[in-house]
Write a structure and sequence with these properties.
heterodimer; A: 215 residues; mainly alpha; 0% strand; elongated; B: 280 residues; alpha/beta; 5-stranded mixed β-sheet; 3-stranded mixed β-sheet; 3 helices; 8 strands; rod-shaped
Amino acid sequence: MTATDHHDEAGIATELVDRARAGDDQAAAEIFTRYQRGLLYLLRRWTGGDTELAEDLLQDTFGVVLERIREDGLGDPSRLAGFLHATARNLLRNARRKTLRRRTDADTDTIDTATDHRAGPLHSTLRTEEAQVVRQVIAELGTERDRQLLYRYYLAEEDKDAICSDLALDRVHFNRVLFRARQRFKTLWQSKWDRSAPGDSSMSREIGTRDLDHV
Amino acid sequence: MSESASPLTPDDHEVIDRYLRGELDSESSERFEVRLLAEPALLDGLETAEAFARGIKTAATQEMVATAAAAATIRRRRFAQLAGMVALAVMLLIPSVVLVRDLQNVDRELDVARDQVAAADQRAEEAERRADDAEARRSTDADRRDTEIDQQLAALRSENQRLEQQIATPSVNVPVLTLAPERSAANQPSQRLTLGDSGSVVFLLEVALPVASRYGVVLRQDDTVLWRGEDLVPDSLDTLTISVPSSLLRTGVHTFEAKPSDGSGSTTRLRFDVENDLAD
């Protein structure tokens, strides 16, 4: 039985930590597989879309956590996710400090830091595809009111209660419109991109799996 | 799509939205992120919501860009059309301006020509008027001259008639004056002739000796030659007889000079004084 068969996060995490500390390399791989996607998402979000830095920090995070597990174990193994999260935040903080210190040493590093890591043909293609699918979703909406709801919520970033008041909606209906729109968006996206989730998480998963051997 | 089968609750969607909108406090945000690590369904929902929000913004941006581009295209087309219209207008305007200017020049030239024609007409009228006046004057002068001529002719005819009558009619009491050299040698004429309505005076000129066969005779009053006669032949009394119209003689001293025609001999000068109230 593998850890992924369990639905209790606390139990799963405890088991994985225990196995990894006992020298089970399969448990280390399972830890990586289970948490790398979410952790990479967060790292990319925290780094402003710097995928290269996020992947470096991802490897460093798992390296630090697995080493800690093997050497000392965790005080509360059931909180493995929290430990990964805190470790990643600390590594990111250290990386930023390092970047700030290096910023005065060499201009080339500053230039590298200032580079927009999100730019690229694939990124642009994904964004364009997202927009196309969104247009289709909005076109399929039943009422102009629902379209207004989405525009005001996502573009104008108006408060949900204010929108409900203006459009004479309750929050249940509001959430239903949002949920259905996003579900339709997800369905269309998956049919378009071979059941991949919206965003570029599938690519992230592939990268994370590829780099598992280096952890 | 995530492999997680556990559906998200409305609260999950609520917290996803609040996380994406930055509405969670740090503690709630951290709790949510820790959940993300262990709950693939929650991560799927988050990524879907984030991609959907991003897609709406991208679509709106693209539409704005497209709208702006379309507006820019329309503006460019309008500008191009306007520029084309302006260019066309300029292309039409320039020849029009040139044409109008030429027409204006032509008009001005026509005005000048009209003025010149009017001036010429005026001058022609003036000339015609002057010609008419001149013609009138000429006519008047001609009439006057005709009148004068007629009067002169009438006078001449009258005189001629009188003379003819005079010729045809025998004259009585015709004055006869004999002039001899010895009597006219003094400074003052010794003979004084008072003429009345006699018609003519007969002079008997006695030439000085030796007598030539022919004489040229000149009648003068002072330095004015009144009459000249050539090849006059003296009669048997060595006298030249000459009838002179009394109208030819005016008051004053007159002289007859009789000079031989062949140049021989001496010149005879005969002086006489005339008083003729009628001739004066």
